[in-house]
Amino acid sequence: METRHFHHALRISEELCTGCSHCMNVCPTEAIRVRKGKAILYENRCVDCGECFKVCPVKAINIDHDDFSRISTFKHRIALVPAVFIGQFPENISREQIYRAILACGFTQIYEVELGTILLVEQIRKYAEENPGIKPLISSFCPAIIRLIQVKFPSLVNNIMLLKPPLDITALYCRKLLTDQGVNPAEVGVFYFTPCAAKIAAIKSPVGEDYSMITGVINMDFIYNKVNKIIKNGLLNDEIPVPNLPLPGYAVRWTLTHGEADNIPGRSLAIDEIHNVIEFLEKVENEEISDIDFLELRACDESCAGGALNTTNRFLITERLRKKQPEIESIDNNTVVGIHQYEEYLQRRIFIKEIKPRSMMKLDEDMAEAMRKMDKVQMLMQVLPKTDCGACGSPNCQAFANDIVQGEASIRQCIFVQKSREHTGELTPEESLQILKEIWGNDKF
User: What residue ranges of the chain have pLDDT lower than 50?
Assistant: First the structure.
């Protein structure tokens, strides 16, 4: 089982948090509790999907990225730009203007993240042919989904395709290109514009790899505001040549829902939004669904267009990227220069290591102790009301029972148990009030 520490990009500000429990109620892996009026994170359960970030009404949850000034410490400053970044700008702002503004921010080179799909799409087809016994084959694109499978569906870990996502292939390519041009690798900084927290976490603590080829991560909303300001203020130098030709249409669409599935032969399904993914994987795990060749699974609604750090509505981003397609449909893989020169080099390094499970459901490493705790959970569930009200500070009665056997909660935190004990004289109203204060904080009473 995987035992390395998970890096998390999500940060909860204790000062700003009001303990409203919105985050606890939407977390798909039950990774949040409320204690003393504040949300706390169970790090071994969190997959950095960003659902908590999206619903926090007081912006107490932040996504931690690298300091932008860090790029200045490198002579060669590469921006890895995903297609959804371009899709955030209105149609009257051209790709060339956006690129010139990125260069004006201080970067020296720009590569589109989806460049890596030029090689990846054929590798996925080969991987499927060489592994006919793995069905469904699950895409390795979305890092939140990889972590979700590790912690919630450990029996499906072996279904994950062991191939690098386009981001890592492109990072590997641009580093190799500069090295072959005689550039000192220590002078190269590769920075990714991320639409979500999960990709930050994946870069800081990669799954299936020992280290990342990416130096740092810049949040999409931060860099969007900088680029947009340069464009609006007319600070562009039109004489700066725009690097790289546009990518083929399928590559630009790769980060959208159906971007992968539409390019994989056989019965390929695309499922987005993490709760939909969980519902589907439960059916796969229970063998209620079979005969599927490939699953494209994305944590966000509308895939990367729905990332928590995008500044534009996900449906508008999707529309803008798809509307541009007629302009680039004539572009094919052979039009894209450069990366083919390194095809053999990249294909030899396109595989990742075995991905191991990190079961969050395991109650104890010792099997006998785990069985004892499981029996106790079942006994507690006979007592608890099964209303999933969340008044105990846990997201539902099952999670509350697990917390009790793990020594992280007390049965007295259940409001129904409190009232019952008040009725029998085992608790006074004052004692019940004190228990509620310990969960929700003194300022709520």
Answer: none
